[in-house]
Amino acid sequence: MREFLMERLPARAKVAEMLEAGAFVDQAWTGQETYRPHTFVWFHRPLAPEPSVPFPIEVLEANERFVVVDKPHFVATTPRGAHVTESALVKLRVLLGLPELAPAHRLDRLTAGVLVFTARREFRGSYAEVFSSGQAHKTYDAIAPYDPALEFPHRLVGRIEKRRDSLQAEVVPGEPNAETLVELAEIRGRYARYRLTPATGKTHQLRVHMASLGLPVVGDSLYPTIANVAPDDFTAPLQLVARRLSFTDPLDRTLRDYESRVGLEWPAEAMDDSAAVG
C-alpha cells in the first residue's frame, strides 16, 4: 500500500509523513499492508498557501435558518481548486460558528453581490429549491462597452455548454437552456451600465451572453479571451455585481429582498458626464 500511495498521490502529499502520523482517516494505515485493489483510502489533502483576498464579506442578514451576505469580488462561493480557506463558505463557517452552513445557490468567484447560505442542514432543501426551481428573482449590474448600433432592451436566448476540459463556457447550437434580459441603464462615453436579468442560471451565463453581443464585461479575464492574471492581483475586479435578490421565504412566506452595496468602477476613459437611460 505504501508503494501504491506514493505512486498515486502528488509529491506534496508527503505520503511517508502521513503514514507515520496516522493521517489517513478511514483506518490506521501503516503502508506495510498488502495492496488492496478497489479500496478507498481517505485523507485530508494538504492545502497550498492562498493569497488573502483583501475585501470583507458583509453580512446582510443572519438568522436561525439562513445567512445572506454581500460577497466581494475574487472570493469563491465554495472551496474549489486553489481557493479553499479563502472561499466564502469556509470564511463564514469560521466567522459565524456555523459548521453546517451551505450555499443555497452560487456566484462566480469574480462576481460580487448578494449570496444566500442555509444555516442548518434541515433548512437546506427548502431554500435550495427556491433557487433551483427559478422562484428567486435576481438582477445584476454590469459595466461594458457601449454600442449605439444595438437596440435595448435585448433578450438573449440560446444554448450554453461548458466542457470539462475548458475554462470557458460557450454558446452552441441546440435547444435553448439559457435566457438573459439586457437593459441599458446609463451611458458614459464608450461605456455603459447594464441591468441584467437572468431567467436561468447556467455557468458564466451573463459573461457569455455579454461577450456574444460584443460587449464583454469590463475586467473579465475569461471572455472573450483568456488572460493570465496572477492569483494575488486584485487590481482589476470584474465589473459585475449581483445587485438585487428577492424571493418568498419557503417556510414563513415572507417576502425577502436584499440589495448589494458593492460599487462598480467605470474605466478611466469613460466620460465624466453620464446619461441615465432608465
Descriptive report:
This protein has 278 residues and is α+β, with helices and mostly antiparallel strands. The chain has two domains: 1-46, no CATH class; 58-276, Pseudouridine synthase. It has five helices and twelve strands. Strands 1, 2, 3, 4, 5, 6, 7, 8, 9, 10, 11 and 12 form a twelve-stranded mixed beta sheet that branches. Strand 10 and strand 11 (255-259) form a beta hairpin. The mean pLDDT is 92.
What brief labels describe this structure?
5 helices; 12 strands; Pseudouridine synthase; 2 domains; 278 residues; alpha+beta; globular; 15% helix
Give me the CATH fold name of the largest domain: Pseudouridine synthase
CATH top level of the largest domain? Alpha Beta
User: CATH homologous superfamily of the largest domain, by name?
Assistant: Pseudouridine synthase
Radius of gyration: 22 Å
CATH level-two architecture of the largest domain: 2-Layer Sandwich
- The count of helical stretches stands at 5
Poorly predicted tracts of residues: none
Summarize it.
This protein is an alpha+beta fold. Helices cover 15% and strands 28% of the residues. The protein has two domains: 1-46, no CATH class; 58-276, Pseudouridine synthase.
Please give the structural blueprint.
Layout: H1 2-8, H2 15-21, E1 58-62, E2 66-71, H3 88-96, E3 102-103, E4 112-118, H4 121-132, E5 137-145, E6 154-162, E7 169-172, E8 178-188, E9 191-198, H5 205-212, E10 240-248, E11 255-259, E12 275-276
